[in-house]
Amino acid sequence: MLLAVRRQAVGLQKTTMKMSPLARVLLLLTGIFAAYQISTGIDGFSTIPIIAYTISFGVLLVAGILLIIWGFEVLDSPAVVIVSTIIPLSLATGLVWQHLASLRTPYLIFAIVGFLAVTLTRVRPAPDKTPTFVIAIVHGIAGMTIFLLPIVLSIQEVTNPLFSLVGVGGALIGLGGLALSFLKAGRPILSKDFILKILPVILFLMTLCFVVGFGYG
Questions:
Q1: Span 154-162, mean pLDDT?
Q2: Residue 2, domain member (yes or no)
């Protein structure tokens, strides 16, 4: 019982770490790249991928702006885990819809059910391990999709080799999303200070990989 209380305290502990000027610059660049991707980088795609990518990069843009304005304290919001799930699920759905026609409907169903599962386990009481298990499954599948699919397509020469950078971005978003989600769940896989220090770097590198990968792949 004491362990459970300690975990809950970790998840609810207020974030007081001050954001460095470099972190704010990286977040600003992240927002600029995300806005560019929304306005220019998804031209020519079909309707569903455009919607999915717009949602993904739109949430990323808003998240970057909120972090710049309010600092890391915004991460104390209970909605962070839910919002951090939208980005990989939307991005993965767009990729599958573009390149794996036979899995379009099943993956769309997974994305919707996965998002609802994460949301429900956050807004309603659930057994101690259930929210963590749900997060791990949803983020894991979405992250692996974004990581593996572009790399496999590049190896098979279906796309330009630079499209594999989308996979690198997928690896970064998977690591960052899981680290942040487990932190909010009170089961941090890395120290909170370390996660907050590397979060702006991860967001910047991830967005840069996506922009270059989609733009030149």
A1: 92
A2: no
Tens of pLDDT, residues 75-104:
777 677 788 789 889 999 999 999 999 999
Can you tell me the distance from the alpha carbon of 61 to that of 34, in angstroms, rounded to the nearest whole number? 6
Containing domain of residue 126, as a range? 18-216
Question: How many domains, the chain?
Answer: 1
Most confident of 1-15, 57-71, 75-89, 166-180: 57-71
Distance CA 120, CA 118 (A): 6
Tokens of 80: 């962070």
In a domain, residue 10? The reply is no
Contacts for 131 with CB less than 8 Å, ≥ 6 apart? 118, 121, 122, 185
Residue 3 lies in a domain: no
- Mean pLDDT in residue range 94-119: 93
